[in-house]
Write a structure and sequence with these properties.
Layout lengths: L1 H23 L9 E4 L2 E4 L5 E2 L3 H7 L6 E4 L2 E4 L2 E3 L5 E4 L5 E4 L8 E3 L5 E3 L2 E3 L7 E4 L5 E3 L2 E2 L7 E4 L5 E3 L2 E3 L4 E6 L5 E3 L2 E3 L2 E5 L11 E2 L8 E2 L3 E2 L17 E2 L6 E2 L21 H13 L16 H11 L6
Parallel strand pairs: 1-4, 4-7, 5-8, 6-9, 7-10, 8-11, 9-12, 10-13, 11-14, 12-15, 13-16, 15-18, 16-19, 17-20, 18-21, 20-24
Antiparallel strand pairs: 1-2, 2-3, 22-23, 25-26
Helix pairs in contact: 3-4
Length: 322
């Protein structure tokens, strides 16, 4: 009887272990092939793997073509990407922060082609760059915040045919974006606010060739070039794009459609980035009260009158351009 009880108990324990392993192996990843949180990583339908550097561990265990989905949280690591055709998708730069564990190294370093990185706040590289591409082509770097790094927010070295859009690079001690021996890259709808915004010794395109209507990175009404903190905006037609190109290099490289903040849209008196009847009503109220506002004086006669209100109303209806 005693032997039978031992055998039965052993069988039960083995069954429980089997159930436990089966359950552990059935973790789903509903946003990619591999999911990452602050404590580890797992393949869709696979077992959980604990790690103190879960993003790097996921990258090391991924194969070409896979998407790594990084959940909201704070991660402290330096991520080296040496497998081509990978996508690293953070849940958003406002909720996913990656801080350099080794401050002298890049936060993200890409050495292969066809890598996509989006949705990360990248910071803490006090001796190097936030995002660094070297010998990496056909990559997409989008919707990241690469700020507060000692060198550059984003650097491309011997890397071509990449697209960078929707990124913010601010308060970096070097350049916001630094391109060396890199050409044929498309860089548009990014936000640069640094002591030195850009260095480019190659041949790159800094704006879209076709301007499209849509909310840009600073809330303006058009998608065109990039926002540059050291650009003095000239936007007489109120489309949110500067009419004077932003000089990238002295040899004739320009951002031909630099972004202007919504408040610079001519006749936009309520600061929403658009011309509407509400702006005309503000101008009319100023005229009735005998008050003057340079922004309301769209006729350029040195005073605010009902003519300015009429012109703004017509511009809002797209009858005239200011």
């Amino acid at each position: 009887m005693k032997a039978y009880t031992i055998i039965k108990t052993t069988a039960l324990i083995l069954a429980l272990i089997t159930v436990s392993v089966t359950t552990a192996a059935a973790i789903s990843c509903d946003c990619g092939n591999i999911c990452v949180d602050e404590t580890g990583w797992w393949h869709d339908g696979g077992a959980f793997n604990a790690s103190t550097t879960p993003i790097q561990a996921a990258v090391d265990n991924a194969t070409a073509g896979e998407t790594i989905c990084v959940k909201a949280g704070n991660y402290t690591e330096n991520v080296d990407i040496a497998t081509a055709h990978l996508t690293l998708a953070g849940e958003g730069a406002d909720v996913v922060t990656v801080t350099a564990a080794d401050s002298g190294d890049h936060v993200f370093k890409v050495t292969v082609d066809y890598v996509n990185i989006s949705g990360f706040n990248v910071t803490g590289a006090t001796g190097n760059d936030g995002i660094y591409l070297t010998g990496a082509d056909h990559c997409n770097i989008s919707d990241n915040n690469a700020s507060n790094n000692k060198y550059h927010g984003i650097e491309l070295y011997e890397s071509s045919n990449n697209t960078l859009t929707g990124n913010t690079a601010s308060n970096n001690d070097g350049y916001g974006i630094y391109l060396e021996y890199s050409s044929n890259n498309l860089i548009y709808n990014n936000y640069f606010d640094n002591a030195n915004n850009v260095y480019d010794d190659g041949s790159n395109q800094w704006n879209t060739t076709i301007i499209t209507a849509g909310l840009n990175i600073i809330g303006g009404p058009s998608i065109g070039g990039n926002y540059w903190s050291d650009y003095k905006c000239d936007d007489p037609d109120g489309d949110g794009l500067g009419n004077t190109p932003y000089n990238i290099t002295d040899d004739g490289t320009f951002d031909h459609h630099p972004l202007c903040s919504p408040s610079s849209v001519k006749g936009d008196l309520n600061g929403d980035g658009y011309l509407t009847p509400a702006d005309a009503a503000i101008a009319l109220q100023l005229a009735v009260n005998g008050a003057h506002d340079d922004a309301a004086d769209v006729s350029g006669d040195g005073q605010t009158t009902s003519l300015d209100a009429l012109m703004i109303l017509q511009a809002a209806a797209e009858i005239v351009e200011l």
